[in-house]
């Protein structure tokens, strides 16, 4: 019997070629692991989909009575005691999952035409599970079909989960923050200032409103305090901005030849779209003069920061609120692509003031 021993390196010198090869092998192994997980998940979901489709097409309650689902779940658990997917509740989810999409795809020719790339041409009684569904965990699917009201909304979150590798918690947070309704809702002049394809894509990286509920702001805060709070919570702020944003700088000095300096609030870079995004924060309602200032900053970013392979910089004013007509008129003749959005947060009254007021009232 061999004695235990420590395994040590035998003096091999790891050169650059070895390190590069090792990194390549590690990445290939991670990819293989991911593919294996996706393959197993896809097979399970394909099975769940087929069970739900059978239950729907066979009208099982009409054939075998109201208790058939409970009996079916019990029979499957008896046959496969080690499997976790055959609870009465989960079997019901299988059917609901299939019927959620069946009712929204098969029963509306308009939706079939709109989502032919997702679902393909479908026989009336055999809706096939899209391949992308296999990339989403079952728990995510349950949440989406339980919360989404339209096919557009469900597919929006499915694509976002795939793009951002969202956890269940991130999905729930984004749904509760109404990302589907807010994304792309900012007022912009992108359609007139960017090529058609770029304009459509650029709109998608903005939203309205932005949810800053992760901040604790005292009543009467100003823009400097709002900016400071966002920087102190930069991770949460980046999550709220959305996928693909990288923080470049805050109050980055722009010095002119005559010595005058200007300081844009925040500069980000959107990696997938290869463009800088300049953000100005306003703790008040939108005013027309805000557009001129950020237009200047976007011009500066295009001239001084933008690389030859970068797309045009866009500007975003995030303000307390705005009048739609005022925004549209303000952006109409602006040359640079700009957007305006609002934000939401919970203000708290200064506790010292509140306590003092309470004390005075009690003394009276």
Explain what the structure shows.
This protein has 364 residues and is an alpha/beta fold. It has 17 helices and eleven strands. Strands 1, 2, 4, 7, 8, 9 and 10 form a seven-stranded mixed sheet that branches. A two-stranded parallel ribbon has the order 3-11. The chain has a two-stranded antiparallel sheet with strand order 5-6. Strand 5 and strand 6 form a beta hairpin. The chain is globular and about 85 Å long.
List SSEs in N-to-C order. Answer: HHHHHHHHHHEHHEEHHEEEEEHEHEEH
Spatial shape: globular
- Low-confidence runs: none
DSSP strand (E) fraction? Answer: 5-15%
Number of helices: 17
The proportion of residues forming helix, as a percent range, comes to: 40-55%
- Judged by helices, strands and strand pairing, the structural class is alpha/beta
Radius of gyration (Å):
27 Å
Mean of residue pLDDT? 84
Q: Main sheet, how many strands, which sense, barrel?
A: 7 strands, mixed
Could you tell me how far the N terminus lies from the C terminus, measured between alpha carbons in angstroms?
Answer: 91 Å
Tell me the number of strands. Answer: 11
